[in-house]
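This protein record is not my work; I was only asked to verify it. Would you go through it and say whether the fold makes sense for this chain? Here is the record exactly as it was handed to me.
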Amino acid sequence: MDRDEVLAARFEAERGRLRAVAQRMLGSTGEAEEAVQEAWLRLHRAGPDEVDNLPGWLTTVVSRICLDVLRARAVRREEPVGDALPDAAGAAAAAGDGTVGEGTDPEREALLVESVGRALLVVLDRLGPAERVAFVLHDGFAVPFEQIAPIVGRTPVAAKKLASRARQRVRGTAALAPERLAGHRRVVEAFLAAARGGDLDALLAVLAPDVVRRADPAALPAGRSPVARGAATVARETTVFGRRARFGAVALVDGAPGIVIAPGGRLRLVLRVAVADGRVAGYEVIADPARLAALELAVLPG
């Protein structure tokens, strides 16, 4: 093989790992592929003689490209967390049809969500660019802080602090004792499973008789009341919610188990769930962007 063929073969051996790094950093398969392709172009321009440690060099290049994308995204606010749902039809589309944006492959995005975790993608989206890069590299791919430091423009000690701060935000702080947290989680998981399946009987079993559902207007079809009361009424309305529920995941919401609705890992709705006596006593559907931004979201362990 000639020089270019050898270089291409060595790059292809690293492509899968580089794609995984970029996907976790960017939360998008399309953008991740672009970052990896840009790394190849830079490697081809540099040539093998300029690279002593190819895996490390490529990790650094891809990470810097991703950091630039994250910083530009933060400045432009092209995809703010919790985009408003414009109307009833738009709400159904944004939260229920799997569309994750122009130019994306829904199947590939679904694989990304499955491999990384829907709740984790939502929480990662809330980290600052440098925090996200430091956390993904260290906690996800065991890259040492001495290598992370120049990527994020910090000292190794400061890079370690970035990752630590990100880790604390990802894990969050539970507002409930461990036993209560586990019990509430089981109830919320049962509720989400019943909603996904449109199982009216299962919903009635998990809802308290006097359950109350509240919702931001943007989360509802036009003319629907923002408040619904009683298990039968709430259960019927929740079966309609089933299309959105398939994009749901249980997460820590303000310290207690709740549900994030995030097609393609992009947050659209949050359900803040109240549990009492082993049942759902009430839940609130939050769609307003300002309210979503104010929520403390984290990943439940396990």
In short: Residues 79-103 have pLDDT under 50 and may be disordered. The radius of gyration is 22 Å.
